[in-house]
Amino acid sequence: MRGVAxxxxxxxxxxxxxxxxxxxxxxxxxxxxxxxxxxxxxIGRSAPGLLPLFIEIGELxxxxxxxxxxxxxxxxxxxxxxxxxxxxxRQRRTMTTSKRTKMLVMLVFIVMGVVTMFVSPQARAQQxxxxxxxxxxxxxxxxxKRDKEAKPHVMAExxxxxxxxxxxxxxxDPNEKMTRGKPIxxxxxxxxxxxxxxxxxxxxxxxIKEKGVFPYLPLPHIAHxxxxxxxxxxxxxxFPRLExxxxxxxxxxxFLPEFPPAIFLITRPDLGDVSKGQTVTIDNFYELFNGILxxxxxxxxxxxxxxxxxxxxxxxxxxxxxxxxxxRGVTCFDCHVNGHTSGATHLAGDVRPQENRRRIETxxxxxxxxxxxxxxxxxxxxxxxxxxxxQ
Length: 391
What we know:
The longest helix is centred in the middle third of the chain and has 26 residues, at 140-165. The protein has helices at 2-18, 22-43, 51-57, 97-118, 121-125, 140-165, 197-202, 205-211, 233-238, 285-289, 295-304, 332-335, 383-390, and strands at residues 68-69, 72-76, 85-88, 172-177, 183-185, 345-347, 359-361. Strand 1 (68-69) and strand 2 (72-76) form a beta hairpin. The protein is 37% helix and 7% strand. Helix 2 packs antiparallel against helix 4 (97-118).
């Protein structure tokens, strides 16, 4: 069994060694030689091990025409029973075992550095994708400082992308208003390239795809490699605990729903807007809905306005908030404000790797009583289903 394991291990090592850069193989060969000499000085004979693997690969024989290897001459021994590399130097010095050990340690560190430098980006890219994010090893203060310094650049680069794709100027309907009177924005907002809207309207879907002129490509996250919940500025102003130190929301306010939105209950249409112009929170939900909802509904609403830890808002070092109350987490109604939406953005949670996750806008909860399916790839039929899913 030991022989089988040794053979398998040697084959694996030989395969890995063959992919190393010549310089890394050369330095490793010197280390192997030193190990062999050290063993020979201890037990009186050389131990077969790494050296035959270097010879079999054949890469070391021919690095230079004169056979020079890292300042030494490496030649293959003529003994057919065993492939060895002899070290011939002009002046052979007598080394003690302790000196050889020190040299061996130094060479180990050297080869580690060389291998690290020569590992190609392609080899790194071939590493298997993982469903989990990296573990944060840095102190929070370090991450906080770096992200704050990088924030202006992150926002500027994303703004360039937005302006290249869209006309972000304010154009609203003069007559149509939202419940509280906010004007409704009108489009189109996309910037066409090489065609007009009239020409685009006459094209078939296949023609649009072939010419690459579809005007509304998927919009990436503000910082897609990081992702996470980002809340509009109007909401952050009302609830500072929702502010992130690494990025801000990107879309202009005139494209967003009014804040806070009204709430109309299908069971009590006579009450009109039961939110009374307020944002429903843990501080006021009981006052607003006591006597309107039954006890089970009231407790369900309590869960919707209770903070729970989330990836960017939690009490660990792996967070993007510096606010003490933000460390408690976010609520369901932080995104689905008053059972509607604030326009907060996130990445779809059911896709990996990270670059394949699509940016999503918080869907409204209005009308879920008549919807068969609700939200982003979520088979939810009621607010009760939504509550169970969110928690």
